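Incident log, structure service

09:12 report received: a user says their structure output differs between two submissions of the same chain.
09:20 pulled the input from the user's history:
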Amino acid sequence: MTRKPTHPGVFFKREVLDKHHISLADASRHLGIDEDTLTVFANGQSRCSVIMARRLALATGTSIDIWLNMQSIRDIWEAENITEDLGVDLAFWRMGRA
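09:34 re-ran on a clean worker, output below:
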């Protein structure tokens, strides 16, 4: 996968809120969360927690795993595309010591 997967919050905003003309204020009120919390999530700046996944699943009639899988796929993509040196001594681990 070359393109970074869509954040579940960005997906929720685009595919649910925007398509149904629901404001972040209204959505947050009906999800039982603070508007700032939803705004940060909808802008892709916070992860989809299990609690948020449950709220989204209840609100949209979907399953929790859809939201958590979207987050997991994004997390895996980010991990596989880390470019900084993590300091792992590969020579050591390739010597059969693991």
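09:41 both user submissions now match this output. Likely a transient worker issue. Closing.
09:42 reviewer note: The first helix runs from residue 8 to 18. The mean pLDDT is 95.
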